[in-house]
Amino acid sequence: PASYLLATIHFGTPEEQGIDYAQLERTLAEVETFVNEANLDEAWKPEYDGYRWLPPEQPLSAMVGQDDFRTARALLPAVRPQDLERMKPWSVLALLEARGESGGEATMDARLQRVAAASGKRLVHLETLQQQLQALDCVPATEHALVLDERLRAPWILRDESAAAMGYYHSRNLGAWLADIDHMYGLSYAGKAIEQRSRHCLLEERNARWVGQLETLFQDGPSFVAVGAVHLVGAEGLLAVLRRDGYRIEEVPL
Fold this sequence. Notes:
The protein is of the alpha/beta class. The protein is built from 15 helices and four strands. It has helices at residues 14-17, 21-28, 49-52, 60-64, 66-75, 81-86, 89-97, 108-118, 129-136, 141-152, 155-170, 174-183, 189-202, 204-220, 238-244, and strands at residues 4-8, 33-36, 122-125, 223-228. Strands 1-4-2-3 form a four-stranded parallel sheet, with helices on both faces. The longest helix has 17 residues, at 204-220.
């Protein structure tokens, strides 16, 4: 039986995304298992704080400078200044790329997990919350601060990239989205090198860890898999690897 692999986006409204959630629910009803990146209901543990927060003696304003910190505050008005001071650069960058929208019950990923759980599907997660945090925090904060500094000096690039990402997603042009990400507009040579290392942790390493699990699940029975859109495309994306391993892939319009 067919399994489904859905590309998700972590911000935006259903109208912006061009997603018919009623249709997704009907598709989900056809399968036995729902699969996503990590359990969004997993309780936060104190030992996870080190992945997200800077040590008290190393506030964000000291890493990027007061001018950049003021820019970050202006771009993220919903974040309390005392929390922004503690956030690691990767966390600030993630919020900026998502237009300041933080994860919550309204996100696509949370909504799908909630529907799957309510309909009694078997829930499978490709990684633990700690593994996800390790991937996000794989570049030292002192280095990632350079990327954040360069982004905050040209904040219009972030706005343009967020708008472009939503446009690519809505038009289902994920390959162009990944190419845009890989171009790393506005970053210096050093900034691009740091971002490339971060991208490898977030995409290629996780894809390699996930694909064996997915193939086992597909052999066990029909599954509905929902993972971030850019995990699907590229030479080492999930679609390319599954094709190389002999899977037939067909696009299903939404």
